[in-house]
Design brief:
293 residues, 7-stranded mixed β-sheet, 9 strands, alpha/beta
């Protein structure tokens, strides 16, 4: 059974489109079709519901069964390749979302902890969504992750570390700065300065905004929380930030809890493939980061 055929089948099952699968691999559509035919001949059954136009690619019952196993097989192969590469270059790769990493490092420094384990791994910085994809794709060994709900994935070992709440962040000179709490509908007319698409913070904002028919306006998006704080402090707009992004607040800022009906939590977890072994360096890093809550 050809590994490339399995990859073609897996992506076809995910995308449900011969055209999409061909574009994904930068091959012709017949290349995908021939791969499926080879697999079907070897297995003695149809994997894709036949559509002469090839416009759609829905899986048969047997295709669904095969797809679930192919996903595991491909992840194990990627993990094996990754571990071989690690044996040549033993430093393991760890995903660090910047805001989460900064918060954890600050907390550990305040506890006078030895940060040596952080220097024993190769840091890959990025947003939680992209790091999750790299983890599932076998490109990194271990990652910290942020999410708006507890993460569940059968291919990963996941441990929730802690959760923090989101706050409305304003200049201390803002007219709403003395409020004890704010409903999202109270701030629909404000200009928002937000973290960009690489961050779960924008997803949290979009969830709240959709409840109110997307009335809130985004003035500016950037992947730098320090710039956001500076702009908010100068009363150029307001922001929506989780508590971990506010660990070193400026005296010019105030954070106000969202009203109960709009409250939203930010979960911080770590994850690694359930098929991958963890090095002693990663185990030391886990022991260290678990001291933060």
């Amino acid at each position: 059974m050809n590994l490339r055929d399995l990859e073609y089948f897996y992506q076809l099952g995910k995308l449900k489109s011969y055209t999409g699968a061909a574009q994904y691999f930068k091959v012709s559509q017949p290349t995908i079709s021939y791969a499926i035919k080879r697999l079907e001949k070897e297995l003695g059954c149809d994997l894709i519901i036949k559509d002469p136009s090839h416009r759609t690619a829905e899986l048969t019952l047997q295709g669904d069964i095969f797809q679930s196993h192919v996903e595991d097989v491909l992840l194990q192969i990627k993990t094996a390749v990754n571990e071989v590469h690690q044996s040549l270059n033993p430093m393991m790769t760890v995903g660090f979302p910047p805001i989460i990493c900064n918060y954890i490092l600050t907390e550990l420094l305040q506890q006078n902890e030895d940060l040596a384990p952080f220097s024993q791994v190769k840091a890959i910085r990025g947003g939680s969504n992209s790091l999750m994809m790299k983890l599932l794709d076998g490109q990194i060994d271990f990652s910290l992750l942020g999410s708006l709900a507890p993460i569940k994935n059968d291919l990963l070992v996941i441990k929730q570390l802690f959760k923090k709440e989101f706050y409305v962040v304003l200049s201390k000179n803002h007219p709403l700065a003395d409020r004890k709490e704010l409903a999202f509908q109270d701030i629909l007319s404000e200009n928002f300065i937000l973290l960009d698409e690489h961050n779960m913070h924008l997803t949290a904002f979009n969830q709240l905004n959709h409840r109110y028919h997307d009335q809130a306006n985004i003035l500016f998006k950037i992947d730098d929380v320090s710039v956001i704080k500076q702009m908010v402090a100068e009363n150029m707009g307001i922001s929506l930030l989780s508590d971990i992004a506010l660990s070193s607040d400026s005296e010019q800022l105030v954070k106000i809890p969202l009203a109960k009906e709009d409250s939203i939590s930010f979960y911080v977890s770590y994850a690694h493939s359930k098929y991958a072994g963890l090095s002693e360096e990663i185990k030391q890093l886990i022991t260290l980061i678990e001291k933060v809550s």
